[in-house]
Amino acid sequence: MEIPWDHLGLARFCAVSGSDRAMFEGGRHSSDLSEDAESVPVVVFGALGESANDACYDVRLLARLLHPTLSDHELPTLCALHDVKSCSGEPARAVGELLSALASETLRLDREVVALLARLASEPLSDLFSRALVLAPEPHAGKKPPIEELPEKNDREVTVEGSAFEAGGFVAQALSGYERRDGQAKMAREVARLFLQGGALIVEAGPGTGKTFAYLIPAIEHLVRDRSARIVVSTRTKQLQEQLYGKDLPFLLSTMRPDLKVALLKGRENYLCLRRWEIAVRELSEGLERDQLGLLGPLVRWLWETETGDIDENAAFLGDPGGRELWGRLCDTSHQCIDTVCPHMDDCFSIRARRRARKADLLVVNHSLLLNDLAVDRVVLGKYTHVVLDEAHAFEETARSAFTWTLSARVVERLADELTPSRRRRVGWLDRLSVPRGDADVRAAFDLVASLRMGTARFLSALGRSLPSERRGPLPSLGDFDAILHRIGAEIDRLEEAVEALIERIDEPELGREGEGYLEALRGLGGLVQVLGAPREADAVHWYERERAGLSLHVTPLEVAPILARIFYPALDGVVLTSATLSVDRDFTFVLRALGLDAAFPGIVAEIVPSAFSYKEHMRICVPRALPSVTGDHGAYETALAEFLSSLARRIDKKGLVLFTSYRMLEEVRRRLPEDLRTLAQGVDGPRSKLLERFKRSARGMLLLGTDSFWEGVDLPGDDLEYVVITRLPFAVPTDPIQAALGERYTATGRDPFRDLALPRAVLKMRQGVGRLIRTQRDRGAVILADRRVLTRSYGQSFVDALPAPLEVFDRPEDLVANLGRWFDEADRSRTPIDLTRRDQ
Question: Do both 800 and 764 map to the same domain?
């Protein structure tokens, strides 16, 4: 397409990258860098820096608007996408040529997209889109076509000749380099038996066993055989959800049953609400928040092209902290959904996703959604006969979190802002009503919202001053706050009455349905206030947590087994639990009891399928005996650990992951590391997902410092990760309120809180941490345990026994560094390129 550069106001422009400059005329590179270069528009990539020219175009920002679903918006990525060849050698020229490519992309967009970008983008990009609008194609007739619905079932049976896992099976024929794995075939047989006979099956399947195929293939075969069956597969991480739905299931269904209905469903807060989108655009345009309009830019083209409305697709929007904060005003929520009266109901992403989910024979969800659906009697997912819990090691903690009630200033503030904002920077539900502002009911509602907001903040502030300074702790009796809790509860009751009265008076169906959602939220808040002020129940723990946003109060069930036994297991014909870490010393007792499986299902079958990886050949596990004790002088240990990490990183020059059990220790060790040592730290250098992306793109010699969420769900194969340092055995903090309350419960019921609770949990978590290292058949690397308690304490043997390779002991840290340095050098000289195509199926 020939670009009318004159019309776009870019007949001549100067591209700048650092000290490098390049002139462009008519969109083409020119060797002329004349003196008038300062008077033409300037094109840069990323931070604008200082420029005397107001017409400064940020190409990276333009790319984020036009390509919001790219995983990153770095110059090499964008140059590769648009086939710009001069990226490395001539960066300024690359920036200019990239602008040309993006301008061409802009002129191909639909007029409605360009018009909205012109409205939302900041100057001078908004002017660029306004000029392009004149040249944009006419809008398509009608709305964007609806998402293709799932096909109806038919009676065509598809059979697979022979075993899927044999050398001649369809998996081997379709996947080059496939090797039969006995463990995978054994697990598949047990899963198939479970689907036929019912009951419970627990399978610990090590990395590389191919566990996803081992349960998906029997699941599909069972659905073909039994048309009344319905199977839910639940995972902890979105990464595995996406793998199952986007990769594994399409491959298997194409051969086994192309017409089988499958769906992926996430929590409704993952989906954009079209009504709330329109409200946000209007409010930000008309109010005092115009500075936030630009945050909506990366949503525009994506909104026009997405088939799912799942915000996880939009890396550009989520990559902006302001965008993530704004998402709460854009996403679907239960109490703001107006359902059948919504003008966008036919196009609603969330409703479509739930409709597809309820029609699906096989549904992929996450643990949180599965558990939250139980709390509302399966109204979202519908009835199902079987469940496969992948990443089942996390199911207990996810259940405990799902069944927790939380009161915080943030919770109250969010609800109050949706009714009537405190800073007049946007309008709320009360502002949008047709009832005059001076009406008695409206005034009463405004006053009650303000009183609830202020009263809750004062209560939490006063309570916070009376509590110990620890970040988390048990919540004492709130007897001294009875009066204020009673007052807050009464205000909530009166606010309910005021909202209910207004709903009865308004004629707008949309606002009426929205008001009913707020009533439901207020009733939940009132119920929680009552629970906090009532006598404590024996099966729950009340605790507090200090966060950056303020004090939070929680009511958490001590044990989830009774809840699952009551509302989950009775409706199932069968359940499969699988993970790489479920047993302690080859014993599943801890997990079975924690989840209540031992009481819910007779004759549970438990299997351990060894990993297909050769850990003893590819992994070394070492401990330096001479490091100071982690339980002694914290400063001495942290100083020694920082020195050890520095020497290790410099000698090995590989990518390493350092796992901590607390932010405090991470920050102290990071502070002691040399400034020239390249590190990325959780909580310092960005959110988890962005840290992992940056770590993958980084050169060798980088250290990634992470806490709890990095112990599992991190997949960094090959050169992306070659050593892991575990700074401390991952015991839960004994004074943690939930851990302490559970310990008391164990003692009261004749169980040992250390042997039966703390130790099994720590061993399982350590196995997860060690499991970050070897992710493919060709990986190799080292794990360093920097906690000498594995050598000096009696329980240390439990950790040693759980390791997949022998433990090597070095007296001095410098000996360990020298030995590993030689080992890596020898491996580098003898190794062939790492094969990253061999992944777990």
Answer: yes
